[in-house]
Amino acid sequence: MKDDNARLRAAIDKLRVPIYIKDPQGRYLYANELACELLERARADILGRTDAELFPPELARAMQAHDQRALTGREPVIVEECVRLAGRPEMNWGLSIKQPLFDEDGAPDGVAGLTIDITARKRDEHELVALKNDYAAILQALPDPLFVLDAEGRCLSYRTPSEDLLAAPPSLFMGRRVHEVLPPAEAETCLEALREAARVGHSTGKVFRVDAPGGTRWFELSVAPMARSAGEPQRFNVLSREITARKQMEQALQERESLLRAVVDNTPVEYWARDLQGRCIMQNAMTAAHWGDLLDKRVGDSGESAPVSADWAESNRRAYAGETLHKEVEYEVDGERRVFQCLVAPIRVQGEVMGIFGFNQDVTERKRQERQIHELAFFDPLTGLPNRRLMYDRLEHALSTSARRGTEGVLLLIDLDHFKDLNDSHGHDAGDQLLVEAGVRLNACIRQGDTAARLGGDEFVVILEDIEGVAQANTIATRIGEALARPFHLRCGKDGERVVQHVSASIGVGAFGRGELSAAELLRRADTAMYQAKAAGRNAICFFDPAMQAAVTERATLHADLREAIRSRQFELHYQVQVDTRRRPVGAEALLRWRHPHKGLLAPGGFIELAEETGLIVPIGHWVLETACRQLARWAQRAQTAHLRLAVNVSARQFRQPSFADEVRALLESTGAPAERLKLELTESSLIEDAEAVIERMQALRALGIRFALDDFGTGYSSLAYLKRLPLTQLKIDQSFVRDVMSDPNDATIARTILALGSNLGLAVIAEGVETEEQYDFLAAQGCRDYQGYLFGRPVPMEVFEAALAQAQG
Length: 810
Ligand SMILES: Nc1nc2c(ncn2[C@@H]2O[C@@H]3COP(=O)(O)O[C@H]4[C@@H](O)[C@H](n5cnc6c(=O)[nH]c(N)nc65)O[C@@H]4COP(=O)(O)O[C@H]3[C@H]2O)c(=O)[nH]1
Hints:
Layout: H1 2-14, E1 19-22, E2 28-31, H2 33-39, H3 43-46, H4 51-54, H5 57-73, E3 77-83, E4 92-102, E5 108-117, H6 119-141, E6 146-150, E7 155-159, H7 170-173, H8 178-181, H9 184-200, E8 203-212, E9 215-225, E10 235-242, H10 244-266, E11 270-275, E12 280-283, H11 285-291, H12 306-320, E13 325-333, E14 336-349, E15 352-362, H13 364-378, H14 388-405, E16 409-416, H15 419-426, H16 428-445, E17 451-456, E18 459-464, H17 469-485, E19 488-492, E20 497-501, E21 505-512, H18 519-535, E22 541-543, H19 546-567, E23 571-579, E24 585-596, E25 600-602, H20 608-614, H21 617-636, E26 645-649, H22 652-655, H23 660-671, E27 678-683, H24 684-688, H25 691-704, E28 707-713, H26 720-725, E29 730-733, H27 735-739, H28 745-761, E30 764-767, H29 773-781, E31 786-788, H30 798-809
Parallel strand pairs: 21-22, 24-26, 26-27, 27-28, 28-29, 29-30, 30-31
Antiparallel strand pairs: 1-2, 1-5, 3-4, 4-5, 6-7, 6-10, 8-9, 9-10, 11-12, 11-15, 13-14, 14-15, 16-18, 16-21, 17-18, 19-20, 23-24, 23-31, 24-25
Helix pairs in contact: 15-16, 16-17, 21-23, 23-25
The structure holds ligand C2E.
GO biological process, one term: cellular response to nitric oxide
Domain PAS: 4-74, 131-201
GO molecular function, one term: cyclic-guanylate-specific phosphodiesterase activity
C-alpha cells in the first residue's frame, strides 16, 4: 500500500500539469515539478509560502478568492485565469480547478488545485471573435442583400440593408426553394449559379429578373459556397445586387443603338466611324456594299486608289484635329464615276475627340437631275443652245461688263428665211434637223465666250462681246450668213430620204457699249434691223444704227471695189527715195496706190486694212512684189540705177502664206531681178506668231540674197532676244518717233536708243518720215546713216522718181 502511494505521488510529481495543495491558510503544502518549473522556484522555496508571496498582488488576490469560494461553497471551482508567468512574455491562459479539501470532521482542510494550459484555445477564441466582428462589420457594410441558400436553392436566411432591395417580401421566399418563388427560367439561372459555385468555387454575373408591380427588376448574383464540416449539407452565400438601373440604361442604350443602326442602315448614305487608331469601328450596309468589309481596317486598307486614299487620309487627319468637313468628291463605284457629298467630323465624348465618323451620300442622280432641270430651264432642248431666258441673262451680263470696261459688243438677231416653207414641204422633223445643224454652225462661227442662243422657232441670237468696232461685227455676221447659206443635208420622211436644203438668213444687228441700253431695248433694235434686212429682200445684214449701217455699207462697197480693182488692175506703185548721210539716193520704198475710178488716187491707209482682213492683200501683195521685181530688173540694166535697192512692204498675212518664199523665188527668176537689191519690209506683228516658221522662211529668202528691214520698229513688243535670232539687215525708226524728235524728249531717247541698238546688233538703221533739216541734223548727230521722208522726196510715180534721180545724179 505504501508502495502504491509512493508510485502515485511520483506519477503526480511528473505529470505535465501543474498540481498543488494548499493548507487552509493558503500556504503551499505541495507543488509538483511542473508547478515549480512554471514558478521557476525550487520546491523548498515554494512550500510554506502563500500566493501573495509568489504571484503579483492582483493575481494572488484572485487566486485566494477562488480558493476561498471553493472552501466556502464546498465544491470545486473551475476558473479561467490569465497569468503572465516569469520568463514567458506572452499572456498565458490557464483553466484552474480548485478542489476544496475537508478533514474527517468536515472542517476545511485546504485546497488542491491543478491548472490546464488553455492559451492556444484562448488565442483561437480571440481570433474567432475578431473574425466574427469583422464578418459582422462586412455584413453591416454590404449594400446588397445576402442570402444563405442550400443546394436546392432554399432560402435559409437572409440579411439586407433594406427590404426594398429584395426581389420579394421575405415571407414569400424564407424557407422556400427558388423554383417556388421565381419563374422556371429565372429560378434555373439561380440554380445554375449555385451549381457553378459548387463546381468552381464561385459564380458571378448570373442575372435573373423579376416582374414586380413597379416594372421588371434585374438582379445579378455573386455566389460562394460556405465552408462545411463533413456530413454537413452544402450551403451558399448568395449576394444579390439589383442592377435594374444599369439594365435599363443598357436597354436604353441598346434601343438607341438599334434606332441609330436602323436609321443608318436604312438611310441611303454610306456611314462609317473610326477609332483613335484609325480603325473602322462601325459601317452601315451601304458602306459595306460599296467598299466591302471595312471593320478594323484603316484608310487605304480597302484598295482605294492612291489619290482617293491620300485625300481621305487628309480629311481624316483634319477631322481628328477637330474640324468638321463638308466636301464633294468623285470616285469610281463598280466602274462608274459617281459624285458623293461627304461629311467627316470628330466624335466627341465630353469634349474630347474619341474618333471620327462620316457620311457619304451618293448625289450622282440628284446632280444629274439638277443638271437636267437646269438644262430644261436654260437650254433649248432641240438645239442644246441657251434658250431665251439664259440669253437674257447673258445679255444683261454682257451689257454690264461692257459698261464697266468700256468695251463694245453687238447682238445679232438671226432669222432663217423661208423656214416655214421647209417645214411645210419636208415636215417638222426635217425642220428640226436644220435647226440643230444651224445651231452647230452658229457656234462654229463665234469665239469661246460669245453666245449663240435660240429664241424659238427659226430665230437665233448671237451676242458678241468685246469686239473691235462695227467692221468686226460685220465680218462675223457675214461669216454667219455664209455658214447658214451652205447646203443642209437632211433626212426626210419614214424612209429617211436625203434632201439637200438651202436657206439664207436675215440678220439684224444692234450694238451696245455706247451709253445706257437695256437688254429689251437692244433686242428690239436688233429686231427692227432684222425686219429691215427682210424688207431689203432677205439674205441680208442690217444694222440698227444708221451711222453704223453706213460704215458697214461703205466697207461692203469698198470690199467689192477692191475685188474689182484687182481684176481690172487699178493699182500703181509710187516710189519714195531713200538716201544716205550725204543725201545720195541709195534706193526707194515702193508704196501702193489705188487709182479708184470714182475716188481718184487712194493711199493705202484707206484700204490696206480691209484688204488684210478679207485676205485680198495676198493677190494685191503678189502684184506689188511682181511690179517691184520688174522695176528692180529694169534698174539692174542701167549703170545709174543698178546700185539702187527697192524696199517692198509685205503684210503679215501675206508673209504667213506657206508658199511665200517659193512665190518670191519664182518672181525673182521670172523677172530677172537681182535678189540682193530687194528689201522686204516686215512689221513686228508679222514676226511674233509661229516664230520658228517665220525664222525658217526668212532664212530661206535670206539665202537667196534678199534683205529684211523691220518696219515701224519700236511700236511693237518683240523681245530683243527674239529679234536677235532673225536674219534682219535693217531697222526702221517709225515716223511717229521721228515726227516729234525735236519736241518730245521721249521720242528723242527712243530714236537714240534704236540707233545704238542697231549699232550693237550690227544692223543698219533707217529713219522714216524725216521732214525737216532739224530732224535730219539730230538723227545724223546720233549716227543715223539712212533716211526717208518728204525732206528728200515724196512717194511719186516711177517717171517722176527717175527724173528726180537723174537730176540728183546729174
Ligand atoms: N507724214 C509723212 N509721211 C511720210 C513721210 N515720208 C514717207 N511718208 C509716208 O509714210 C509711209 C511709209 O510707209 P510705211 O511705213 O511702210 O507704211 C505703209 C505701209 O505699211 C502700207 N503700205 C504701203 N504700200 C504697201 C504695199 O505695197 N503692201 C503692203 N502690205 N503695205 C503697204 O501703207 C502704209 C502707208 O503708206 P503710205 O500712205 O504710202 O505712206 C508712206 C509714206 O507716204 C514724211 O516725211 N512725212
